[in-house]
Design goal:
- It is built from no helices and 18 strands.
- With 180 residues, it is mostly beta strands.
- The strands form 5 sheets. Strands 1, 3, 4, 6, 7 and 8 form a 6-stranded mixed β-sheet that branches. Strands 10, 12, 16, 17 and 18 form a 5-stranded mixed β-sheet that branches.
């Protein structure tokens, strides 16, 4: 099983009805659960932040006499770390008409990226998904404009926190000649 960091899942057991199952978590103290009258049972992992192994130790019958048998078998729940955005921004301030230069990476090598945008006084920015944001931004007025990219890293269904990157777009100066 693979889950997102901080999530939980259930470990299922099946066997003879009303069997007492003894197991350990990461080699710790033995714990038990009893299978229902259909021979099924499960335990919640709780919210996990690291890979965790559930090891089957033994089973015993609930009747008299109680018969017991050592068992082997295990399941490891793999936990995907929170995918974080690492970025290299070539310049957080550009001139109107120039491209953004944002390279994205993550602590999770296979993460993918997506972003939304908020822009003011600028055109050319758009939401997208890639490991590079290279968009030509143009100031729409004679004042400074801004674009904020709200970026998330994703690994499968696991999503990291939003990382904002703001690019300032300076307008191209305009000069009007006149005679004296």
């Amino acid at each position: 099983a693979t889950i997102c960091n901080g999530s939980s899942t259930n470990i299922s057991f099946s066997g003879n009805p009303n069997t007492i199952v003894t197991y350990s978590v990461n080699g710790g103290a033995n714990q038990t659960t009893t299978l229902d009258n259909f021979g099924a049972g499960s335990v919640s992992t709780g919210n996990l932040t690291t890979n965790t192994t559930y090891q089957l130790v033994s089973v015993s019958s609930s009747g008299i006499p109680s018969c017991s048998q050592t068992q082997s078998g295990s399941v490891t729940v793999n936990v995907i770390p929170v995918p974080l955005v690492n970025s290299i921004v070539s310049s957080s301030t550009i001139c109107s008409g120039q491209p953004t230069g944002i390279s994205l990476s993550s602590n999770v090598a296979t993460a993918t990226f997506n972003w939304t945008i908020t822009q003011s006084g600028v055109i050319g920015a758009s939401a997208g998904n890639s490991n590079t944001i290279s968009q030509n931004l143009t100031a729409t007025t004679s004042t400074i404009g801004f674009v904020t990219y709200s970026i998330t890293a994703n690994e499968g269904a696991c999503q990291g926190p939003v990382t904002p990157i703001t690019i300032t777009v300076n307008p191209i100066p305009v000069v009007a000649p006149s005679t004296v």
